[in-house]
Amino acid sequence: MRNYTHLLLDIEGTIVLDKLYAPVPGAVEWFNSLAPRGVRARLVTNNTTESPDDLYEILVSKGFVFEKSDYFTCLTEAVVRMRRRKIKSCYAMAAPAVKDYLRRQGIEPVENSSAQSILVGYDPTLTYEKMNMAVSAIIENGAVLFTLHRNRRFVNEKREIAMSAGPIAAALEHATLTRAVVCGKPERRFFLDAIKGWDVPEGEILMVSDDPFADLVGAKRLGMATCWVLTGSQRDPKAAEKIAVKHRPNYIFNSVVDIPA
Which pTM was predicted? Predict the structure, then answer.
């Protein structure tokens, strides 16, 4: 494997193990050694349970050293896209921290079908009634459907495999015959925003993630090199066989600490 001087790093399942944010063994030391060696690294996350500010503080408390300018989240991208559409209200199928963040950004969370938008995230209290509310808002009120990402599953705070936002968004799309606006990885715009200011070709950037189906395929489509680490929800290397050859990861490692960056 060649050495890369510019890295995009997923967070959960990549540098931390789960929703308890326990660092992958050796990841703090590995990450903090990058900058002194001249390697630029930016964290890119589809986290849907914490506000961007809260997650930053959590990671710093675990020992990771980085600036907020090197940290991109799907939630901040969602707010940008809602503002462009002049959206003022949102029915958020998401954690309380996400709703609080929306409110602080001037987008009022509402609990009825009058909402101008629907935002799909991680909602551990999701019910059939909530799904129906979202369907009603889209069909009867013309609400715009946003999803923070299309991830299939993740490792929750109990270290169990759990369904993520992607299947929920897909169900709403199917029920309403609409297409969701995807805010996070693997969307092209998210990646392009994440590498702004890096005056290097996409082929000189390595994207590292535990998700070979969404994160890494999206990065590969932009021409980036990709690396799959087996510390998250996808741990069977044979799963790569399900991906089109041209989109398969360039590298597979057991952990980020094994990457010779």
Answer: 0.85
